[in-house]
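Researcher: Please generate the 3D structure of the following complex. Treat every line as part of one assembly.
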Amino acid sequence: MLIATCAVGTRHWGSQRKPTMASTLSSVSSDTLTARRLAASFFIPLVHEAQLPVQGDARVCAIVPTRMPTALTVRLVRELTAFNPNLEVIVVDDCSSQSDEQIVKIFREIASYSRVRVTRTPVNKLKAGALNHALSYFTERDEVYDVILTLDDDVVVAEGTVRALVEELMQHPRLGAMCSQCRVLNKNKNILTRLQGLEYVNFNAIRLADEGFMRGPLVMHGMLTAFRASALYAVGGFEEGHLIEDYEITARLKSAGWHVRSSVQAPAWTVVPETLSRLWRQRTRWSYGGITVVARARSPLSVFQDLLGHSAFIAMLCLVAALNVTSGSGEVPLFIAQAIISLSLAQLGISYTFQLWLMRTYVEKDKWDWLIRLLLIPEFVYSYLMTLALLGSYVFHSFVVLKRHIITNAAYLALGVVERGFRKLGYAETQWGTQRV
Amino acid sequence: MIHFGGTVSLGTSLSPIGAYAGYLLLHSGNYWLAVCFLALTAVYFFVAGTMLLRYIINYRRLVRRGAI
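Model: Done. Output below.
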């Protein structure tokens, strides 16, 4: 039903769209990614040359969906409007509590800024639904934009962030979306937030490595991404019912032939979970959500990095399990075991050196971040915790698939108990996509 | 701890598990499992290596453009 809603929306939105020079040039029909070019991009990523001059008059609107706004939401809206004189901002209240004095006061303050509007969803629609609500809002009012920004409600932006995103996006007609750099606002809170700060440095590095490879990075994150409005409307907006709508929309844009990338000149800061339980819930949502996006992807190319990652990881698990339960004849040439150990240690050495080099790109680092990175062990422990969340997601995904094929009442009751157990462990098919709930 | 850039987490790095598997192989001695594991280790190494290569190329392009 949700998909059908999106499809209807596509036709409706499409009819509202007036062609612009950028949208005409950005036709993706000419984008022929041959198998040879794709294979070559493994080694040498494709180049996106700027094809249009900087357009200072692009019509831009920022959508900020929120359910429990805080002082950071007010700051975000205030700074967005202050830093960007032509930017329109629409804050989507996704059925926040109207009896909470604090929240009502925050919305009143937000609405007091010029070029800011607040709209409320009729029912709680989760993040993708709230974003679609804003898109419908524009359509109903015949408002046409060139670029639509989507933001989390707890993001802090720099003065030039939005300008950098919009200018780069409008200069490259093949790009459907461009995301900011992600940095951690509260990284000094404790060791967990510091580890996430280091992890986000890696995320930014991987996004840069994936530029020009398989149509670009895997995820244009929900924290702050600029979408070409024509591309967003053409693919039907956001698909509701997904745990991670940012990955889902990126995969759909790439399936439609658009390229995506991140901008190194557009920093943005977000608040990361400060406790293990909240981090665990966030990561179970990311990992299970990622699996559902891969499972439903229309084009393998759009989720290629994940397909490769999941396949290799599952193959490795199977092999380690097989090694533990089988006993061979002892005829393994010594060089094979030595080669495996050598390759593994070489990879570790290269990775470690690269991680240390990456520290030069970490603007907010201090001596404690250096210590954590040098010690290596904390990041290993952290990464295996994340792997545990991934393993749980495989089990939960198998459970969900099984549940869909069970038709007897007794089995349904039994599965209901199991599902409650999964929910306690942080695995669910729908959740609001912020850290605070 | 380089991973594949997806939502598959950092822990998918083969480094410690690969070394552990190599140790197991030294003791169990299953030839075909050993060959499979060597192939998988090589795939991991290739993917991580090419990712690093792409990073270096894209980084140098940014430097040339004056973006960094």
